[in-house]
Amino acid sequence: MQLIVKKNPADLAKAAAEFITKRIKDVLKKQDRFTIALSGGSTPKALHELLAKSPYVEQIPWLQLHVFWGDERYVPIDDPQSNAGMAYDTLLGHVYTPESQIHVWRTDLEPDAAAADYDRVLHDYFGDTGPTFDLVLLGMGDDGHTLSLFPGTEVVHEQTAWTKAFFLTQQAMYRLTLTAPLVNRASCVAFLVAGPKKAAPLKEVLEGEYDPDQYPSQVIKPTQGELIWLVDTQAAELITKR
Length: 242
Ligand code: 6PG
What we know:
The protein is of the alpha/beta class. It is 28% helix and 19% strand. The strands form two sheets. It has a six-stranded parallel β-sheet with strand order 1-9-8-5-2-3, covered by helices on one side. Strands 4-7-6 form a three-stranded antiparallel β-sheet. Helix 1 crosses helix 2 (44-51). 6-phosphogluconic acid is lined by residues 39-43, 70-71, 73, 83, 139-141, 145-147. Residues 39-43, 70-71, 73, 83, 139-141, 145-147 line the site of 6-phosphogluconic acid.
């Protein structure tokens, strides 16, 4: 695991944009497509906006990108809460990745059918074994959740299924999410975490006892791939081992 601490959210977004651009270019020297899973929440917006403009936009071969989402809120894409909607507004609507290579969770199906549909798309794309994403971008909530793996939910312990739909009582909405068994087969997983509210959960996730029911981000441990935490100083405030 690598922990990279940047001074503030703006520097963090820049470091993430540089990291992603370099990773895409390096990987595309060895293969002809780069597969990324985007995250939702608010932190990635600044990163997306940077990637959509110079000096990053012209360095990234957008035609070779294949895009998925780690999780989705079960709302239509034009709802302000939609993770895909946010990514289109801030990034995908401004670059040339073909629509056929952008895999949005279907929120026009019933939640379980939407999860089954995404599972089929993922199996068709990756096959059943071997490495999966070239890069999974993740965020971490103030409660230590990541993806839609929330504290106290069963999906945190999923061992086999790649996708799940469930009703998140505390937000009174359905969530659609990838699970740890799939994400942990990625070549690289990078968390992007900023702000003072993340300091206590980040300390627990990185330095506390293993307690994924309370801090689900702890289940993210790529088996072969790299794990990188990109955080700002406020989020890293309580971290002792740097
Ligand atoms: C979601 C997410 C979620 C997010 C964290 C962090 O749809 O809610 O994908 O896991 O990454 O909640 O969100 P912030 O960046 O807003 O803190």
